[in-house]
Amino acid sequence: MTSDMTVRMLRLLSLLQARREWSGADLAERLDVTVRTVRRDIDRLRELGYPVDSTRGHTGGYRLAPGSDLPPLLLDDDEAVAIAVALRTAAGGLTGIEETALRALAKLEQVLPRRLRTQVTALQTSLAGITWETRGPRADPTLLATLAVACRDHEILTFDYTPRHGSTTSRRAEPCHLVASGTLWYLLAHDTDKDDWRLFRLDRISDPTPTGRRVPPRPVPGDDPAAFVADRLSAAPTRYRAIATVHAPAEHIRARTPALATRLRPLDEHTCRVDASDDFLPRIALTLAGLDADYTLDTDPDVLNHLRHTAHRTLRATG
After folding, report:
1. Residue range 43-53, pLDDT digits in tens
2. What is the DSSP string of the chain?
3. Is the pTM of this model over 0.70?
C-alpha cells in the first residue's frame, strides 16, 4: 500500500467516523478521487476489519456500522484535547460514570502526542471547580449511552417509565436531546402516543429498547433544547408556591442570580417577578435570600412559617 493510499484511507476512515452516512459522490469530492476509487478503498477497509455498510440506489451511501470490536478512532488535535478534558470532568462530576471515565482517560492519555499531553495537563492543573454537593448529575453509563445513540440516530425507543406519582407505564418516544439540570439528567423526547413533547427523568427510565425505526430529525420548539427544558421544569407543579415581586430591574437580579434562568420575568423597567416555588422549603429561602433587593411575596402559609423560623433562628444566633 503506497503512502498516498494510506493517507487517503486514513482520511476516508476519519470521514466515516465523523458523520453517520456519506454518499459515494460526497466522499469522492472530499478525497479528490473518483467514485470508483472510493469503492476500492471501502473494500480495503473491509479487508482490514472495518464494518462498512453500503446501500444502493439514488439515496444510497456508506456508513461505518457497529462491529464485534471497537475500531481505532481518528481524532484531530482539538478533538483529542476536548475528549481528554471532558473525561476528566466526567470522572470528577458524574455520579455512576467516574470509574469508566478514568479508564477511558488513561487509555487516551497513553497515546496522546507529547504536545497534546502537555496541553491537557496544563488545562487540568490550571482549572479548578468548587464542589458544593458530593454528587453530580446522576448517570447510569449504559442508559446514558443507549439514549445518546438513539438521539444521534433519531431512532424511536420504547421504555418503561415510573413518574413521581403513579405506576410504571410503557412509553414510545423519539429521543431528541439529553439535558443535565442540577443533580438530574432529563431526556427531551417526542412522545409518539401523545403526539407531544415530554421530559423524562433518566433515573425513572428502565429497559430502553431501540425499535430499529428511524425518523427525520424533529426541531425543538424555539430551537433551543436547554431553554425548552428549563421552561418545562419551571412550569412543573411544586409542593410550595412562592412568587416574589422584586423592586429591581430583571437585569440586576439576573446578573447576581444567573441560576434563576426562566423563573425570572421582567414586569417593567424597575420591577421583575421571580418564581421561587419548590418542593424544598430551605431552597425557597435560599433563592429569596439571594435576590439582593426588596420584594413582596405571594406565598403559602408553610413558606411563611419556614421563613419566620429561619429569621428568628438567625436573630438568636447573632443576639
Report:
1. 988 888 888 88
2. --HHHHHHHHHHHHHHHHSS-B-HHHHHHHHTS-HHHHHHHHHHHHHTT--EEE--STT--EEE---SSPPPPP--HHHHHHHHHHHHHHHHH-TT-HHHHHHHHHHHHHHS-HHHHHHHHHHHHH-----SSS--S---HHHHHHHHHHHHHTEEEEEEE--SSS--EEEEEEEEEEEEETTEEEEEEEETTTTEEEEEEGGGEEEEEEEEEE----PPGGG-HHHHHHHHHHHS--SB-EEEEESS-HHHHHHH-GGGGGGEEE-SSS-EEEE--BS-HHHHHHHHHTT-S-EEEEE-HHHHHHHHHHHHHHHHHH-
3. no
